[in-house]
Amino acid sequence: MENLSENQLFDVDLENTDDQSELTLTFQALGQLASRKIKRHRAVTVQIYLEPAHQLVHIDEIPETRPTYISEDGDLDFVLAMRQDRMQINMPYSVFPVLHYGDLVSVNVVLENETTGEVLNHQNLTLIGTKRGSLDILTNHGMEVYLKSGLPAEERFGKVGYWIDQNADNPSILNKGIELLKELVDIGSLDAAKKIHEVYSEPRYAVANNEDAEKWLDQIDNVGRAASAAAEKQEAERNQLPERITDDATLVKCEQLANKGNTVAKWLIYQYSLTQQGSAYNRTKAFAFVKEAAESGSAEAIAVLADAFARNYVFVSQEQVKDYLSILKAAAEKKAPQAEYLLFKAFYEGICLGERVPVDKKMAYYYLCSSAEGGHVDAALRLWTFFENGNEFLMEESDALKWLKAAAEQGDPAAEARLGDLYIDGRLLEKDNDKGLSYLQKAAEKQNWEAQLVLFQSYYNGRYKDILFEQNKNKAFHLLEQFASEGNAEASVRIMNDYLNGNEMMLEHREAINYLRKAVDDGFAPAMYLIADLLLDGLYLPQDLEQAKKLLKAAANAGFAEAQFALYQYYCFGYKTLKNTHINKERAYKWLLKAAKTLAAAQYEVWVLSRDRHYADLDVSGQEALDYLFRSAAKRYSPALYRVGMAFGQGDVVEKNTDRGINLIEEAAARNHPEAIFTLSEIRASGSFAGETVEQNVEQSLHLLLLSAELGFGPACQKVGELFAAGQLADESEKWVAKIIETAAAAGYAVKDGAHDEAAATKAIGKAQK
User: SUPFAM superfamilies this protein is in (predicted)?
Assistant: First the structure.
């Protein structure tokens, strides 16, 4: 802790409490300052930063009741009026970004006179993330242990630099920091050599020494020359290599170079071992070569290393996963962007080579940024996607746009399409329709479906957002067929869906199906699912249940949620014409839970099954089931909206909120959910909901009741029949009522005939029974 006041009048400290879920800071006025509390009003300004970036901790979602410690902008930047000698503030760790071991947080505190603005004291408290996910006072010993814990080179460099700058007047710490920097220099870090030169050359550092500064100036040149020499050597060896191994002579040549450390030669040998000609080559040796090539940073070797495991060159075990990760980390040390991106995926998703690994989102973000800096287009686009879909990593808008533009400049069609839309929207970027359309056109030429869909809809509707086009449906359909013919599988599925929903394109069924078959041949999962449905129906294609089942499984294995949900139904009780005489709950649950990751209908189904004792073996807790229900409702799935609305209205599993409950039921009703419509009818008729008085509207109630009956909801049909029998629907057609009563009977709801207008009721019921 640094105290900039000569007089020890004020103290800031971290309070050690039993509660590990909160950060507790104490502020203490001492001596003279305490005795003058009546005369001088004091205020404490606190700012909390993430280091070494020195970025204010920002809260994405500010609670409705904003705590004292969160500013209006959502930063941990606040002012406390210090009216007591000792004050305390508690901040739950949940408001911080995810804390990892070694994260650095600085607490900057200023004590000032509220009246005059005079700064009375300025202190800084530096904290470090613990292995428990909390914060503790940073000690030099703790920092030294952390820096020696096997960090990636770039992160180690950043943290060592921060430690050195925070201890510029401490020769012991500076020397330890220099030793750590020297380790980085040994693996070729030019930045580390430059930092050592800075420490020796600038007087603010206690170990400044002109002689050592001169030596490290020479060392900077040496490191730079060594990197250039290595690159030149590799290029010279590359020129000696054949394009591929074709005979014994080229094999021997590559082996000689590989044994000298040439990564390209190692890669070529591995590629040769995969061919029929090289099938007799020692598999273990080839696999060792590709691992060495990947470790050296070869992009080609890194890209296929996982595939080598998949080809069973070696059995994948937890040990092999550790080996694979260590290879990727070694390549990442050499700033190989592909390796960094693969490490990001492993640490973010918690999966590597199909095996579970610890999730570490801080490390994942570090590798993702480094990969993007190295020019990896997928990494750059992923950074933008994180910003747009919730900004999980708290990026600045300008940084996110930088990465989107970088991906677009490298010709990534998805980035071009998104950038084009931003220019047209005038959101985040200055509006420029011409530039926006230009980017969309580039993306469309590269088979990006989002951009192609924009062009199709522009001519189909005669406009795109605020840009007017010549409306020309024939041109729109011609474009759609062109996109499909050029290989865009999504365009092919769009054509088939158009045929099934009115055939506005005027195709005969064989033409539409041919487009769909092409998408299936390309392995497009939605096309597999759609053609499987056609094979089950047997209308446009001869019925083929076995082929349909194969395609459903292929689509499901490819991750298509609708196909996964169809397999759940098949293994549980059959899917369409695909009957299943033997229920297999284990397989059914497997596919249901896979589908429930994204599909609202599957999420709702998990909740439904969790309430049925016949499915008690579904391994989902009550809270997890409730989470699935709310996730389904968040996707605006009408049955889930209705159930959540009822939960709020009744105060069941959530805090009672009548208005919110009715709003959700109304939204479900607007989406044609018949039970929601019927319930809303009952609410409007009675003017009450779960014991609470709400708006009453008898006329609207009757309208909703009839609508629910027309949608075939049994209780609504039953009530309509009984109202008619009671003479309260005298204006309704007997034939229509008879149909409604028939629907009620089919659903198991008998219409009572003991009403006021017995003759009318008997007549209607008689017609329904014929």
Answer: HCP-like (SSF81901)
Domain ranges, ordered by start, for the chain: 2-138, 153-237, 714-770
Segment 478-533, tens digit of pLDDT: 999 999 998 889 999 999 999 999 999 999 999 999 999 999 998 999 999 999 99
Say how far apart CA 653 and CA 242 lie, in whole Å. Answer: 69
Preceding amide of 203 cis, omega within 30:
no
Per residue in 337-355, pLDDT tens? 988 999 999 989 888 877 8
Instruction: Decide: 169 and 189 in contact? Cβ < 8 Å.
Output: no
CATH class, range 2-138:
mainly beta
**Residue type at position 215:** K
Res. 262 pLDDT band, cuts 50 70 90: confident
pTM value is: 0.59
Tokens representing residue 370 in the block: 């480094």
Helices (H), 538-621: 545-557, 561-573, 585-595, 600-610
**Using the 8-state DSSP alphabet, how is residue 95 labeled?**
G
d(CA 415, CA 442): 10
Could you tell me which residues come within 8 angstroms of residue 135 by beta carbon, excluding any fewer than 6 positions away? Answer: 14, 23, 93, 99, 105, 127, 128, 129
At 207, list the tokens. Answer: 């170990």
Query: DSSP strand E in 456-541: where?
Result: 463-464, 467-468
Structure tokens at 3: 């105290």
Tokens for 687? 């003017």
d(CA 57, CA 51): 10
Question: Strand 22-29 and strand 10-14: pairing?
Answer: antiparallel
How long a stretch of residues is the chain? 770
Q: Residue 8: its pLDDT value, please?
A: 52
166-175 contacts at long range (C-beta below 8 A, 24 or more positions apart): 166/126, 167/140, 168/204, 168/205, 168/206, 169/206, 170/140, 170/206, 171/206, 171/207, 173/140, 174/199, 174/205, 174/206, 174/207, 175/207
Distance from the Cα of residue 534 to its chain's centroid: 33
**For residue 391, is it left (φ>0), alpha (ψ between -120 and 50) or beta?**
left
734 backbone φψ class: left, alpha, beta (φ>0; ψ -120 to 50): alpha
* Cβ contacts of 355 within 8 Å, gap of 6 or more: 316, 317, 318, 321
